[in-house]
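Hi, here's the filled form for the chain we discussed.

Project: internal
Contact: R.S.
Residues: 242
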Amino acid sequence: MSDNSSFMRSAQVSAASVDAGLRSHMLRIYNRMSLGVFVTAVVAWFVHSTGMTQFFMGGPQAYLVIFAPLLITMFGFNPMRMSSQTLGLSFIAISVAYGLSFSTLLQIYNGESIAKAFFIASSMFAGVSIFGYTTKRDLSPMRTFLFMGMIGLIVLSLVNMGLSMFVDGYGFGGTMSNLLSVASIVLFAGMTAFQTQSMKEIYSPYADGEASSRLSWVAALNLYISFIAMFQSILHLLGNRN
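And the returned structure, exactly as it came back:
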């Protein structure tokens, strides 16, 4: 009887330890993701308020700024080869690059629209992330659908951009753009739920601190990109232009 009681107590202590570790793991990811959003907002505000938007986005260098986050993610964010500190610096660099390009949003949309879009995106992000964390349903079958949806969204966005540049009378902000924004919101909402569940499932209380920290940076980047995409799409749909 005593042995059984000791076993039960040990199991309870072990479960409590895992739960505490998981909460700490998830909190660290959300904190790092929030740091990225904060850096992006501060950089966008600073560049806009100092009149430097034209310097970064007014010429051929704009393409470098626009594609910098993708380039850094592809070539400067390797969790298998980089330390946690280096991944953190790369994450901040990506956040800064997004901030440079987002400074144009402060010229295009009024402050009320930006605040409203941010509130809606934050609420939606929190809702789907909580769903992904708490649901008992396996979301892994969504992986293929989300991946194919992402490819389709990129292709259609490029086609829409090309048509707006080379076809007279074709407005970039027309029906096609609105439909793409709706699709983007749905796609990245699903991505957020899937990523949150994946973050929870791959957590291991036995992982060393360095490996756990690298994993946190990767997860934070994934959530950050999903949130940024949702915010942009919501702003495009609901924002009032200056």
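Let me know if anything looks off before we file it.
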